[in-house]
Amino acid sequence: MALLQVHEPGATPHPHQEDDSDAVAVGIDLGTTHSLVAYYGERGHGDKGDVQVIADEQGRCLLPSALAMRGEECVAVGYEALACAARDVHVVTSIKRFMGRGIDDVAGEDTLYPIESGEGGMVRLRLGDVTHSPVALSALLLRALRERAERALGFAVTKAVITVPAYFDDSARLATKDAARLAGLQVLRLVNEPTAAALAYGLDSGNEGLYAVYDFGGGTFDMSLLRLRKGVFQVLATGGDCALGGDDFDRDVRAALHKEGWTGSGDKAQDLRLVRQLRETLSSKESVSLDDGVVLTREAMEEAVMPLVERSLQICGNVMGDAEGISVDDIRGVVLAGGLTRTPIVREQVESFFHRPPITGMDPDQVVVWGAARQARALTTGAQTLLLDVCPLSLGLETMGGLFERIIARNSPIPSQKTQTFTTWQDGQVAMSLHVLQGEREMASDNRSLARFVLDDIPPMTAGAARIDVSFTIDADGLLTVQAQEQSTGHQQRIEVKPSYGLSEQEMIAMLRQSAEHGRDDMVKRLLLQARVEGRRLLSAVDSALVQAGHLCSVSERKSIDEAISILARAVQRDTKEDITRAMDALEKATEPFAQRRMQEAMRSALKGRSTQDVESAMQDNKNKP
Hints:
Elements: H1 2-5, E1 26-29, E2 34-41, E3 50-53, E4 63-64, E5 66-70, E6 73-77, H2 79-82, E7 90-93, E8 115-117, E9 123-127, E10 130-132, H3 134-153, E11 159-164, H4 170-182, E12 186-192, H5 193-200, E13 209-216, E14 221-229, E15 232-241, H6 246-259, H7 268-281, E16 287-289, E17 295-297, H8 298-322, E18 331-337, H9 344-354, H10 367-381, E19 386-390, E20 395-399, E21 403-408, E22 413-414, E23 416-422, E24 432-438, E25 448-455, E26 468-474, E27 480-486, E28 492-496, H11 505-517, H12 519-549, H13 555-571, H14 577-607, H15 612-624
Parallel strand pairs: 1-11, 11-12, 13-18, 15-19
Antiparallel strand pairs: 1-2, 2-3, 2-4, 5-6, 5-7, 8-9, 9-10, 13-14, 14-15, 16-17, 19-22, 20-21, 20-24, 23-26, 24-25, 26-27, 27-28
């Protein structure tokens, strides 16, 4: 397009901004109560070089982690899902608490939905006549966040850094990655939420020392100790509880209200949402009144939740015990993350425990997604910081007698690789079954089963003579690969640990097939977004050219150009790429004579005062240059 290349002699050309969708990755905080998406950039949403938390059309940054399901179909997400009151629709929330969990893990919990055992004993949620995997449900939330980002950025978003609780085990981490894959996202890195919070506060900006991150969210609690030294984030120890959070606060406050005579609506989910609103209101008020005359005071609310706050502080003490030789007096600062840290009693108890006021300069709901966006930028454009995280739970094998043999201990730095040698226990044994486990209990049966595989073709030897090296490798996301190799023959077996979490391989294939079937629609959407971007660039370029050299147009020419501009401006608001392309072609055709005259004027200006001999000499000099 000649028009886009023309500028006045000595003037700065209008910059042509390339589509850098491949270089942009978003940060996502997939939360129990709310989820957010952000990016590090400048696309008209703030100052250049800053994190932008992406809002919806109503200006709301938070997306409630809620889905309205009618059978297999998702009919609404977020605020619209919470407002859905149709009888045949089931509103599901707190999905994150079920990620990677087995049926035994939730036994005895007061869940809002009937829980059933899926493949491998993992949780499935029954909503009416249909059961759903937490992975598939989480994918719907991630897809909504991806589409929000695409609307804001104007191009397809395919890469993300997603945060997870530090205490998420291998099953939950892999479940999160597969949910992202179903949502059309490539996960560049899973970052622990406390580490992301530290990144968000810019603790890499010259700060050094020991910091604690206290992260209390809607469904999970994490505490991590980080040592910062010259841009290196080294996690020394971490601990937490994936079933401790705002949901538990709400249940205990609800129980306290019932003791005061509150009857509720009879709908447990609706009552818990009301209790959450009351609890949040009491962060700034001393009391609230319910419709039936029952009064809930802040003091009564704090009494109800104090055992849960104390439980979180006990975990903090355990983490500090894991980091040998460290006391609270060694900690330079305490970073707060998660919506529950708005609660006055939580902040008071944290200050009392750590002997210093916590750092509270950022919105605790947004601090984690800020860190995710910063890490997304680091992984796509580079950064001066280095994250050295730790393995939250021990990994090992079941040995004879049903014992758990640790190979990688919890709080070991990751990425990591460790090898241990095992042997046979029977004469002539030609195969070995390996059972991979995760946990802290001494008996294998008390820990989480991750995978089983067999190393065969072992040469028959006397018991104890064979040597089998078993290597455990954990990548930067905390995901595990196990390899077993017999030393004398070099024969080996390798497995990428893929725990079952209620979504069978057939279901995964079916969902990916559905994604492929919708691939054409997705491509149409991508091409439309790209056409809109190009259309707006052309409008901007023409407008700039007319301001600089509009005097070169005749009256009739200017009228034709103005009409073409109006048509293209309307087309970029429509939903068809073809309309935009036709309008762009028409505008380019209308501006061709204008562009030619601008080119001629630019050349005349450049040659003004120079002889033909000078021009020929300059051309010859350029020709002779290597």
